[in-house]
Amino acid sequence: MPPKIKYNTFLTLSINCSLLPLSILCTISNFSSQVTANNKEKMRTDIESLWVFALASKCKSFTSINSICFVLFILILWLVMNIIYWSHPGGPAWGKYKWSKNSAGLTSFNINNYNNNDHFLVSKPIPGPRGFPIIGSMNLMSGLAHRKIAAMAEACQAKRLMSLSVGETRVIVTCNPDVAKEILNSSVFADRPVKESAYRLMFNRAIGFAPYGVYWRTLRKIAATHLFCPKQIKTSEAQRSQIAKQMVTMFQLGGRDIIRVRDALKLASLNNMMCSVFGRKYNLDCSNSETEELGKLVNEGYDLLGLLNWSDHLPWLAELDPQKIRLRCSQLVPKVNRFVSRIIDEHKAQSGDVEHDFVHVLLSLQGSEKLSDSDMIAVLWEMIFRGTDTVAVLIEWILARMVIHPQVQFKVQNELDKIVGESRAVTESDVSEMIYLPAVIKEVLRLHPPGPLLSWARLAITDTKVDGYHVPAGTTAMVNMWAITRDPDVWADPLEFKPERFVNGAEGLDFSVLGSDLRLAPFGSGRRTCPGKTLGLTTVTFWVATLLHEFRFGPVDNNSSVDLSEVLRLSCEMVNPLTVRVRSRRAQQKATPNNCN
Ligand code: HEM
């Protein structure tokens, strides 16, 4: 029997048995869950079931005396339903899903479609905390979510796979490399759950949040061919080298030897992306209104995307916009549009021999690849946005570790002196000969992955199985990379900072952090792995090599220590920006200020 017929029969039966309020409640419940369960389900409303309301309005029992009792009855039923939902492992969103599937008769559908053995797996609930009624485990997703989730998985003995409810969103999380591989490399999880802020900030038209399909594939291909391919990365070496020199000059000319490195690193990354994407070249130590304006736009977008938006998970809050996220997005988007449109228009007006950048590439696309102006704005904005913070955040963690472990810093500097010498600056081909520096960077990525929960989650496109459990379509999947990289079952002495493990340890020199080994995959893995990983890693390694070749980084004074406390925004950053004492290592060369004109 088709599920819909069963459902209507169920409603009719309910009414015949004087269970009208329950039927209404079921309808409300199903109606709201269909509208809110996930992005695709949002579009689906079951108009047929509204006939229950029409029946209700005709019912004679709705007199004034009974109204209060009826409302009370509805309230009690609502409470009971929510407690029933909440009692399910994983909390209310999972309970609601199971309950609605059972009442829609889909369980029998599943039984018919799986063999006996599979059906056992289908009905086995994924272990996980119930959290609170209605909001589930939303509290785990705020603050240092990676730590809270790891602790909860440990407590529930659900490190391989744990279910959670974040409001009405069903979530699965793994802290296990094998299960992480299963999720990230599965085509079922090639989509992303769209956050309202991402949608409003146009990221659904860019690579990161575009639904899995032709448009997303086209964008990835364009970016891979023109921005992230080895040839293009090589071409942009001169630009990275120039920015590295400017950073050195900036540190030398500071007039002080105590420096807050974050500001310089963020500006350097922003300038680097502005050059690759927009073709704009600015000196680091010369303020200019364009960089300042873009920096502010990126910061605001970064804040908005990093926030846990309650309305994403409790859709009945959406109209209220309690955190003012929608309002802030609506103020930011016109500014981004104006900024990027101006640059696109300038490129359109250019003629003659000009250096080619990513805007030129997008403008030159033809046929099925051709992008509208608004899509182009989204793609360009995303590149600036993603390329800026990740690189700066990672370098700050690396320098922090260099201050805490002076012997490691000394070893890197020794290696630099052997390969580069003292009389000239580092080049990227020098860096490719180094062994210890890449090991240091891997070790920092292990202890401080910039995206401890891999930044952006994945969404199940269809029903599937993960680690033997049934996972329904529309479920959000997360990988807790931070927990994996600190798991004593996966890593020896996981909390110790030991770059040597990547030189002569069990992991060895060949250990790749690019996604093939899920014990350490800070750039994700599978179809939606980070497309900018090689560019990001090249930039980070080269700039760190340059800085360590030029300077010795130490604590501000002998009594101060580096505070490794974290804050999780879009990336996981140091709470207190790193402040260091910088001493020049090379024979002091006279630094000359840049000409700002
Ligand atoms: C240290 C540097 C970086 C780190 C740690 C990093 C990390 C990540 C992670 C964890 C993801 C999610 C992967 C997944 O779901 O499997 C991601 C996605 C992405 N990253 Fe990066 N990233 C870095 C640098 C960059 C750079 C430099 C760019 C571009 C200029 C970039 C652009 C992107 C984009 C567009 C996506 C979305 C991919 C998609 O959904 O198809 N990233 N990154």
TrEMBL record:
It comes from the Eukaryota. PANTHER family: CYTOCHROME P450 78A3 (PTHR47946:SF1), CYTOCHROME P450 78A7-RELATED (PTHR47946). It holds the Pfam family p450. Residues 1-37 form the signal peptide. Coiled coil: none annotated. The keyword Zinc-finger does not apply. Heme binds at residue 530. Belongs to the cytochrome P450 family. Its cofactor is heme. Keywords: Heme, Iron, Membrane, Metal-binding, Monooxygenase, Oxidoreductase, Signal, Transmembrane, Transmembrane helix. One of its GO terms (molecular function) is iron ion binding. The keyword Repressor does not apply. It comes from Nicotiana sylvestris (Wood tobacco). The chain crosses the membrane at residues 61-86. InterPro entries: Cyt_P450, Cyt_P450_CS, Cyt_P450_E_grp-I, Cyt_P450_sf, Cytochrome_P450_78A. This is Cytochrome P450 78A6-like.
